[in-house]
Amino acid sequence: MRPPPPSPASTHPPGAGGPAELLVAGAFAAAFGVGAALWATGQVAGLIAGGRWPAVGLGEMAGVLVRLPGSVGDPARAWPAGAQGLLPGAVGFYAVLLALGALVLALLFAAVRGWEHVREQGLGLGGPRRRRRPGARRPRARQRTERTARWARVADVRQLLVPGAERGRVTLGRVGGRPVAAERRQSVIVVAPTQTYKTTGFAVPAVLEWDGPALVTSIKTDLLRDSVAAREHRGEVRIFDPTAVSGYGRSSWTPLAECATWEGARRVAFRLTHAAQAARGAGGDADFWARQGTRYLAPLLFAARRKELTMRAVTGWVNAEAEDKVRAEIRQALGAKDGEVADREDAIACQAALEVLKSVWSAEARLRSSLVATVAGALDAYGDLQVLRCSRKAEITADWLLSGSNTLYLCAPADEQERLAPLFVALIGEIRAEVYRRAAATGEPIDPSLLLVLDEAANVAPVPDLDVLASTGAGQGLQLVTIVQDLAQIHRRWQGAAETVVNNHTAKVLGAGIACPRTLDYFGRLLGDQELRQVSTSTQDGGYGQRSRTESSTWRALAPANVLRESEAGTGLLVYRNLPPARLELRPWFWEPELRELVEQAPVGATSPHDPDRAVEQL
Q1: What are phi and psi of 615, to 5 degrees?
Q2: Helices in 334-416 by DSSP H: which ranges?
Q3: Using CA atoms, how far apart are residues 591 and 51, in angstroms rounded to an integer?
Q4: CA nearest 334: which of 318, 321, 346, 317?
Q5: Is the peptide bond before 448 cis (omega within 30 degrees of 0)?
Q6: What residues contact 132, with CB distance under 8 A and at least 6 apart?
Q7: pLDDT tens-place string over residues 378-403
Q8: How much of the chain is helix, strand and coil, in % rounded to 5?
Q9: Quick one: average pLDDT of 537-543?
Q10: How far apart are CA 276 and CA 287, in angstroms?
Q11: 603: which of 229, 573, 578, 591 fits an S-S bond (Cβ 3.0–4.6 Å)?
Q12: What does the pLDDT look like over 277-306, one tens digit per residue?
């Protein structure tokens, strides 16, 4: 950022505003203030003790000031003789003095608060805009009077202040000791490295306090362990843990549940193939192959759903796609041979699926091989028997999650993120689509809103269009909380859309200990530079000549990179819309009595009955 030009220097002629003159002026002002205070005290004390005002003018207070040091124990003796009989003793006199001082301070405090209220309502320069009434004339833009960056005061974030946990809002932390929360459904992104309380101080409190459905992803079991008991007391809890890493009872989910229609199968295929490409960080022509893979996978999913098969059948078809027996089985599943179709629309859907498959089967060998490889990569996780056991039934559905204050946890170990990412992204996409459908049907965001916490968002569930989700989710009833380690991670995962991903989040929280240059530079530019005034004085002729004083401006970063990096764990900064940046204190649950009480609740045990290994109902 290029700073504004320095303010022009101002030169003062000799003898104007020198130290001696200023000292004398200050002494006279202090004497006048003390004299006025004593005069007012004497007047009020005389009225109270003697029943009338003492006949002492301000001009006589000079003598009172001279005599008072010798009569501190009996201040009435310092007054003129005619007024001494009206004044009380030392205790009464000083009590009146203290009362008057307290009254003056109270009036000053009220005046300052009144001025802050005027600014807040937009009646003074620099205050926030007032909400316009319908039909009111649009106010003209005002030139900002403050040129320098500064840290927010509590009054600056008044719209974010909350007395405590508030329904429909995510508490961000504390500013100046006061809890602050994002406005309803406004997306939040937390950028912080490991071991800085971003999970215990942000993700866990958000899940604990949320009154409504919640979907939570994480690679660490501490987020699940610290919040599951509290969520069980709010509603039903289900855990999608394909590799059985959490140690809790698992629930089943299958992508085939949404493939009862041709359109549904195409949507699921799109999510699986695009998520696989995003998880691998593929660039170049990755989008082309993902779309081509969608064309091949969609008919397979549709056929498996119509015959009530499982994902094991789909992976088997992909692995043996060139065999005539496999192709005949798929044709039969699509009703091509015996005409088993439910109605005309089903027949049209089956015909469309068959036409796509025929185009794939008749394609040149190299192209077909690439398509098969793309689809096989998207379904790679289903080569694991643990994952297959967790995909036999549709226990996890969008209707179940949104039916109350239910909670869905998605768990994946650190070394399985890439392989499981397509499943997680497809599941999130299914629930997100239902949220959008319900909002479109009513024209209003769903209520209560769905809390979506993407802990380690770039790894566990790298939603390909996270930038779109961050900007549109609020209008649909989706409260998004994205947690990442740094901006370099975001750029590596979302590439060209990385800056949009960050910018589309309303609230941006930067944690302590960041060492990523890209992150430090981004937030440094967001915070801006503060103006520092410099005054220099010079004297000619060896100190006996003309003196001159020069004032200029210099600009320095509000928070240099080393300050951001060296901040204490558990603290951070908040950038929220057009408000000044604020210093933020996180709320690790073990520091907060209310949160600790929620964590330490006795578990209900609702996560244990769901055991995919004993599932008998198949899709």
Answers
A1: -65, 140
A2: 344-361, 365-378, 385-389, 398-401
A3: 59
A4: 346
A5: yes
A6: 138, 139
A7: 999 999 999 999 998 899 999 999 99
A8: 50, 15, 35
A9: 67
A10: 11
A11: 229
A12: 776 665 556 678 888 899 999 999 999 999
